[in-house]
């Protein structure tokens, strides 16, 4: 991640990543009330796919 990036992670796969260099906020929510769980590894893979696909601003 670029310098200045920060994140918050919570139970069940809640994840927020703020990437100022990319002018981007990534948020992943999970309905934990029904016992859903998503592995942080899987969310990291999703985040990487989003980063790889984002077109840079001109």
Compact summary:
By secondary structure, the protein is α+β, with helices and mostly antiparallel strands.
User: What percentage of residues falls in helices of 4 or more residues?
Assistant: 10-25%
Order of helices and strands: EEEH
Gyration radius over CA: 12 Å
Task: Please count the beta strands (DSSP E, at least 2 residues each).
Answer: 3
Structural class: alpha+beta
In DSSP terms (H or I, runs of 4 or more residues), the helix count works out at 1
- Spatial sequence of strands, sheet with the most strands: 1-2-3
Major β-sheet profile: 3 strands, antiparallel
Oligomer: single chain
N- and C-termini, Cα separation:
20 Å
Please tell me the overall pLDDT.
85
Low-confidence stretches: none
Strand content: 15-25%
| Overall 3D form | elongated
How are the SSEs placed, and which strands pair?
Elements: E1 6-9, E2 15-19, E3 24-28, H1 40-53
Antiparallel strand pairs: 1-2, 2-3
Protein architecture, described:
- Helices cover 24% and strands 24% of the residues.
- It is of the alpha+beta class.
- The protein is elongated, with a radius of gyration of 12 Å.
- The two termini are 20 Å apart.
- The model has no long low-confidence stretch (mean pLDDT 85).
Write out key terms for the chains shown.
three-stranded antiparallel sheet, 58 residues, 24% helix, alpha+beta, single chain, 1 helix
């Amino acid at each position: 991640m670029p310098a200045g990036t920060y994140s918050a992670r919570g139970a069940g796969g809640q994840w927020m990543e703020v990437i100022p260099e990319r002018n981007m906020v990534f948020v992943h929510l999970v309905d934990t009330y029904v016992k859903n769980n998503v592995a942080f590894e899987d969310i990291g893979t999703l985040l990487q796919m989003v980063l790889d696909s984002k077109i840079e601003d001109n």
